[in-house]
Amino acid sequence: MKRLLTLLLLTGFTALQAQTARVQIIHNSPDPAADTVNVYVGNTPLLTDFAYQEATPFIDVTAGTPLDIYVLPQGVTDTAQAVYSVTTSFMANQTYVVVADGVVNASNFATPNTFGLEVHANAREQASTSGNTDVLVHHGSPDAPGVDVVETGAGAGTVVNNLAYPNFAGYLNLATGDYILQVQDSTQAVSVGEYLAPLQTLNLADSAVVVVASGLLNTNANPGEPFELLAVLADGTTLPLPQTTTQAQVIHNVADPAAATVDVWLNDQRILDDFAFRTATPYVDLPANTDITVSITGPSAMDTSGALLKKNFNLPRDSAFTVIAGGVSNDPIFDSVKPLDLFAAPAVTQARTSGETDVQVFHGATDAGAVIVNETTVPVAGLVPQIAFGQFSGLVSLAPADYALAVESAASGNVIAKYGAPLQTLNLADSSLVVLASGFADTLKGGTTLPGFGLYVALPIGGPLVALPELPVGLEEDNPVQNLQYYPVPATDVLHLNWENDPISEVRLMNLSGQEVRFLDVSGQQKAQVNTSELPAGTYLLQLRTDNGERLTHRISVVR
Fold first, then answer.
1. Parallel, antiparallel, or unpaired for β 320-326 and 245-252?
2. Rounded CA separation 37/53 (Å)
3. CA 371 to chain centre
4. Which residues pair with 510 in a beta bridge?
5. Using CA atoms, how far apart are residues 439 and 436, in angstroms rounded to an integer?
6. Which whole-number Å values give the CA distances from 179 to 26, 195, 242, 257, in the listed order?
7. Which of 5-9, 201-205, 433-437, 502-506 has the lowest mean pLDDT?
8. pLDDT score recorded for residue 414
9. Nearest to residue 344, comparing CAs of 246, 456, 248, 269?
10. Cα separations (Å) of 312 from 70, 188, 219, 343, 467?
11. Tens digits of per-residue pLDDT, 500-556?
């Protein structure tokens, strides 16, 4: 309706004129104050309710005569209240592209490039070569630096060099194909964004197109519409070019109570609200081949200025990644600080082989040492040879059976925990899983109770992590010690042991990192006392060794 009104007005406006020019007008001001405007020529309305990223077709306008052009806020008809005005004239029989750029109220923006009309003469309504597509590139993003445009799909290389705001680069005469355009900061080689330009898919052979850098890079400092590339066809159709993407699953594995619930931000835009510990997103699309900043804040933050963590990424397109938040804050209750961080690794969204299950393991238990994970029922030897905090294993393809996972200390070789992994029972054929070591071995620090150690699974659909069931540790099913008693459970200052008529020679107490914290030689004895008064609260492994070298291991808790 608006375009019909425009054409009718212009027809009436130019009917009495002997000379005309052809003009296309594009609204590209990202300022909310100019979201929708009226355009007047003198006291005559030319465009009404003309919205951001709308365009006219090429239309006839009066040529050879100065024209007073006014841009008015929506609903305003008095040209004295114009937010912008200019007197200009067009040459007869010439064709123009006119782009409205910049911001109305520069005081509201960190980069005050003010509102104006940028004019490109010798514009084209169709391709100059039959079968090709002509593309006119315009830098219209007020806060973006000078840029290069590099074509990476067909291997054309740099097609626009050092284009500064608010200039035009001139026409590119292109074979009508589907292209990938990477916009780079021409001074710092930073990737601003990567976009698909599907000229062939859109049937744009013989067409002329204007591609406009639109919006604002930093919408945190500059309130307005975000950066993108906008394609404008000769008939006034506007098409935002799709940004290339990659997929990522984000997992909250920060066991620090100070980060029990967080917000996650992408380039200063909040993308996850109240993201809870031991929760995962499904696989989501993120910008590819683009420099992005992921920030973690408290749930009440208004911006990222006081972020707990900021980390930069640049992820390749058409891929998948696991991104896990882990570590702890700098609170002095933590003896050995592994700082809050984001850990990323390539992933798959489903099993690579039909009928199997792909498993990736991540060590995210902050105070646990390096471990080895073995499967003990099938068995699968060397499932995870060795892994330390913050590290991922490689992807392992497994038949969807029910497994038992033994977590061993890499330092001592002792089994510190066993867990069931019921892939068959849970119908996880064709799925891809992330198994995380999560929580603390020592669960009480500085009077604060911390989440305990365990293995958890992130499913590709996201949601709360699934706790793997814990299995008995050691040789209980083939117990060489028949009469063992130990008390109190949990222990406080002293753990009492009795084993009547059984040949026990050694008693060890180890933490979940595999470190030996107590050792007793009890050869020829039938009881012992283990001093636990100075040990931190948490979970420990009690290991008894018989005279013939067999071992029995129990998990015990020490509380304060």
1. parallel
2. 12
3. 29
4. 516, 541
5. 10
6. 23, 8, 11, 48
7. 5-9
8. 76
9. 248
10. 43, 15, 17, 11, 31
11. 777 888 898 887 666 778 999 988 888 899 999 998 888 788 888 877 766 777 778
Whether the Cβ atoms of residue 69 and residue 88 lie closer than 8 Å to each other: yes
Residue 218 sits at φ, ψ, to 5 deg, of: -110, 90
How far is it, in rounded angstroms, from Cα 402 to Cα 419?
A: 11
310-340 pLDDT, tens digit each: 999 999 999 999 999 999 887 767 766 688 9
Taking only the tens place, the pLDDT of each residue in 257-270 is: 989 999 999 988 89
Any idea what DSSP says for residue 18? S
Cα–Cα–Cα angle for 331, 335, 338, nearest 5°? Answer: 70
Q: Under the phi-then-psi rule, with left for phi > 0, alpha for psi from -120 to 50, and beta for the rest, what region is 336?
A: beta
In this structure, what token pair is assigned to residue 445?
A: 């620090």
| DSSP annotation of 236 | S
Give the distance from CA 148 to its chain's centroid. 25
Q: Within a 13 Å sphere around the CA of 90, how many CA atoms are in the beta-carbon half?
A: 28
pLDDT in tens, 140-190: 999 899 999 999 999 999 999 999 999 999 999 999 999 999 999 987 667
Question: CA-CA distance, 558 to 495, in Å (whole number)?
Answer: 9
* 3-state class (DSSP) for residue 31: coil
Beta-carbon contacts of 549 under 8 Å, excluding residues fewer than 6 positions away, are none
Q: How far apart are CA 174 and CA 197, in angstroms?
A: 11
- Contact partners, residue 316, CB within 8 Å, separation at least 6: 246, 288, 289
Question: Is 12 a residue whose pLDDT tops 50?
Answer: no
Reduce the DSSP state of residue 508 to 3 states and report it.
strand
Would you list the DSSP string of 209-220?
EEEEEESBS-TT
Instruction: Please give the single-letter amino acid code of residue 367.
Output: D
- Residues 481, 546 contacting (CB under 8 angstroms): yes
The two three-digit tokens of residue 386, written as one number: 């060795």
**What is d(CA 201, CA 208) in angstroms, rounded to the nearest whole number?**
15
- Is residue 437 packed enough to be buried (19+ CB in 10 Å), middle (13-18) or exposed (0-12)? buried
Strands 432-438 and 357-363: parallel
Q: By the 8 A CB rule, do 531 and 546 touch? A: no
Find how far residue 557's CA is from the centre of its chain.
39
Residue in 455, 355, 448, 439 with CA at minimum distance from that of residue 405: 455
